[in-house]
Each structure stands twice: as C-alpha cells, then as structure tokens.
Specification:
alpha+beta; Glutaredoxin; 5-stranded mixed sheet; 21% strand; Antioxidant, Horf6, Chain A, domain 2; 221 residues
Length: 221
C-alpha cells in the first residue's frame, strides 16, 4: 500500500485531483470551487475528538474570515464518518462558542486521501497525516506541507503562504525568506550578461544587493 500511495502522491504544479465527496455542509466537488475562482486549502487531520486536531480546528475556525478575505476556501478531511465530524464540530462549538464554518470531508473509504497521498503507512494505515495542499483557481497545486501527528500547524504560516502566492502571481515576483505582506519582494534576475551588468550598476526603483538579487517595494493598494 505504501508504494502505491507514494507513486500517486501529487506534486507542486500538478493538477489537483478532482473529487466529489460528502461533507458536513453537503456534497462538495473540488472543481466547482476552483472554477468559481476560489483558492482552496485542502487539509487532513488524523482523527476527530483528538487533542491536537481539536486545537487546530479551533484555530482554523477562529481565523476562517482571514482565509475568506484572501478568497481561500478551507476544506478539512479525515477518514472518520460524517456523523463523527458533526458530533465533533458540535462539541467544539458547545465548549468554546466557536462554529466550524468550513466543510469537513467524510472519507471513510480513503478515496480522497488516496488521491492526495494523505495516508502514510509508516505512520498509520487507518489515519491521515497532517497534510496541507494549497490549490489555485486553475486547480494547480501550488504548495504542499506535511506535519507529523504530534505537531499542530501554524495558522500564521498558512495565511502567509496564500499571501505570498497571490502576490507572486499578481506581480510576477518572488518573496524572500520570512516575507510578510508589505515588505519588499524579489524581482526576476536578468537573463543576459549585458542585463546583469546593467542591473549591477543600479536600476531605478530597485534595491540592488547583487545582479541576481534585487528587491522592490510594491505600491500600497
């Protein structure tokens, strides 16, 4: 099983495998979300009613509006039943007052988990790892993150990923390490020797650290 899953695991810039699944908000088809112009954060968790997963879902729910502002649809998944998802979401709401406003896929047959390689046999045959797939409106996979079962995810970093991807797409730039919105971005390096000489000599509007590393500040919206 592990060999089959590893061979089928999607990679960055692959088309995200389409699927239709039952969720806590009714049937969901991935292509319906992306064709409607949404980004999608598809993420799996090992199991309902577990401590780390509960802290994650509470964190995602509390900041769901921040993802929505970025046009990102959250979609959760585990191989628990629909009724388990509903009971767990209600338990979180009753204990904390926070509603789980995003759909959770019930994937008992591991159909979606198999498409995305979310079950790693070395860890467990009966639970999904903590995987995150950032999917753009063209249904391309833009980022993939895996976390062990013991490590809860950082919501700030997940939001930063979508900020960086959307900024890069819109402005044809890259983002440096630890980048945050509003900070300088990296412009493409010159493609010829002559252009490299000109860049190294200085270029208006750019902070030239080296001919291959130059930054600029994007206009404020």
């Amino acid at each position: 099983m592990s060999d089959t899953v590893s061979l089928s695991m999607p990679r960055i810039l692959d088309d995200a495998p389409d699927f239709e699944a039952k969720t806590t908000q009714g049937p969901l088809r991935l292509s319906d979300l992306t064709s409607g112009g949404k980004w999608v954060m598809l993420f799996s968790h090992p199991s309902d009613f577990t401590p780390v997963c509960s802290t994650e879902f509470l964190a995602f729910a509390r900041r769901a509006e921040e993802f929505k502002k970025r046009n990102v649809q959250l979609v959760g998944l585990s191989i628990d039943s629909l009724y388990s998802h509903i009971a767990w979401a209600r338990d979180i709401e009753q204990r904390t007052g926070v509603q789980i406003t995003f759909p959770i896929i019930a994937d008992l047959d591991q159909k979606v988990a198999g498409l995305y390689g979310m079950v790693h046999a070395a860890v467990s045959d009966t639970a999904t790892i903590r995987a995150v797939f950032a999917i753009d409106p063209k249904r391309k996979i833009r980022a993939i993150l895996y976390y062990p079962m013991q490590l809860g995810r950082n919501v700030d970093e997940l939001l930063r990923i979508f900020d960086a991807l959307q900024t890069s797409d819109k402005n044809s730039v890259s983002t440096p390490a630890d980048w945050q919105p509003g900070e300088p971005v990296i412009v493409p390096a010159p493609g010829t020797l002559e252009a490299a000489r000109e860049r190294a000599a200085g270029e208006q509007g750019l902070d030239v650290e080296a001919w291959y590393l130059s930054k600029k500040t994007l206009p404020v919206k």
